[in-house]
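Supplementary Methods S3. Input chains for the assembly prediction are listed below.
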Amino acid sequence: MRAAVFYSPNNISLEERDQGHLSGHSQQRGVLVRMNACAVCGYDVNVYRNGHIKVRAPVVLGHEICGELLESPNIASSRSDLNIDAYNLGLVEGARVVLSPVVPCLNCIYCDGGQYNLCTNLGEIGSSLDGGFAEFVRIPNNTLKIGGLIPLPNTLTNEESTLIEPLACCLNGFKRINSFVSDVMEEKTFVILGDGPIGLIHLQLAKSLYGAKVMVVGRVKHRLQAAKNMGADAVIELGENKGSPTSIIKEVLELTDGKGADVSIIATPNLDAYEMAAGIASKNSVINVFAGMPRHRSFRLDPNWVHYNQIALIGSFSATPKLIHESIELVAEKRGINLSSIITHRCKLDEIYKALEITEEFLGLRVVINSF
Ligand SMILES: [Zn+2]
Ligand SMILES: [Zn+2]
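Predicted structure tokens for the full assembly:
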């Protein structure tokens, strides 16, 4: 099979691989999925350029996956608390599926509580295990056991389905935000720091779920235009000749009659976002750190500012299969979530370098590999 294999920073190699490679150990064998489409995430570019502590090379990257199931799973669970039968309904040979890339240990306190994304011994498809930049991907049993392979309704295309996974991650963030902001969401101001695909999915969610007022801060003109088209109430440009973090803070405060943001979402690896989030936060507000950062970055925080203003500084990472199910329903209901609008480029697997470059240079929004 054809695969794009990551070996080390700046070294991805297109190779023919033996399919026997996919058979794995019998206990962890799982099922095979033939790839239909795989989106290129900012994380993939970060790994390609810098490597990552989670990545054990050589490995195939790609975790935003839509494929076709080649065999029905045969999983016997020793865990009665997991309702596998209900979860795995529809997982028949030939079914189109999306994936939760989470591979939990099923043996730690977080797994016991169903918080598989927080597993202390977490494996991830497309990171520590081979992912979707290949003709086939193997889904381990532990992912099947938590309902991590999910059949798709016919109404969703292969391409838009690749973005179910990032949508579920954003939904995870919103569930956490919800537990801190209990008042009427329609009256709240969300400021999204980052104009990339993830920022724009957050925008769509904040509009669709809450009808909140949403501002998007970013550096890329065509992305800010896309944010406007998707219903942003204001877009604010940050750049060399444009706003500095200080002027962005001023602008947000002016637009909110001096109050600032009720919810700030950091959806960029740009460290300036922290200064901005702190500057625009209203009292009693929530800041969600959604984006991962390159290593060895830090930000100074005044404990008194957190204390006297009742700031909730939270994080959110990845998603559970339950959130993937919910995300499929959200998109299928067509209530303002339009994942197709996030996809701007299509490439073949052989064009993986081009796909990574388009992502790295912010030439569009998401690039989808749709031919293997
Ligand atoms: Zn991703
Ligand atoms: Zn675990």
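Residues 28 and 140 are 5 Å apart (CA to CA). The chain has a mean pLDDT of 92.
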